[in-house]
Amino acid sequence: MELTRYGVWTSLRSLGNDNAAEAAKVAERLGFGVLWLGGSPPLSALRPFLEASAQLTVATSIVNLWAYPEPERLVSEFHALEVDFPGRFLVGLGVGHPEATARYARPLRAMRAFLDAIATAPAPVPPERMILAALGPKMLELSAQRTLGSIPYFTSATHTAFARSHLPGGALLAPELAVVLDRDSERARAAARSYAQLYLGLENYVNNLLRFEFTPEDVRDGGSQRLIDTVVPHGDAAELAARARAHLEAGADHVCLQTVGVSGVPDAEWSAIAGALGLTDRP
Question: pTM above 0.90?
């Protein structure tokens, strides 16, 4: 499976359910290798994106394991898609956040148990068709041992370098990068703060930010300007392309770009960024 260097990240919440097919067509036409679907979708939610495209890889970012108390159901959904779209999708898995579910407990142990259940199914999901949401060293190491690699979210290039140091050669590292395509700094930072508000209220993300270049003051009151500009950069397409390349230089294999503050299919934003990245627009 060839992911290429760049993909796009979106969710049905921002796209709208009726726009899945159009989003897949636009992403594929612009030359992005992967469309990552966020918002904790069921695996079956990938189907309309796959039906509307010919070669585009589609991936969950992420399937929340707490939504699958019986892992065998995920295995069944995988094979139902694999029959129709062999080799064209990835199962991004994650443990979510303690604030999101009362069932949350001991994430590393829960993920190991979930992967064990998948591995012992009569027809397991191949490890190279799964990838984990991983931030800390132990989950990063598990992602390399048991899956294709890791898809960190709401991080910086500094974290990408850290993650690369905890992943052996051959393990995929594909961080998400949220961006605001807008040169008006005041307006762009307002959009970035609106997006970041949710994540700055989640313990896992805050603790991860504090492990690296940020202080308790940086994560308070909606985030400091330094934090916002680092984690959710803004600017023109060339500036945002440079920020994506910084993750590659830090050790990423693939960067999935999320255009913040856009409803529906972000055709104009994806087009501008694809052009700045030098991707091939296909007729």
Answer: yes
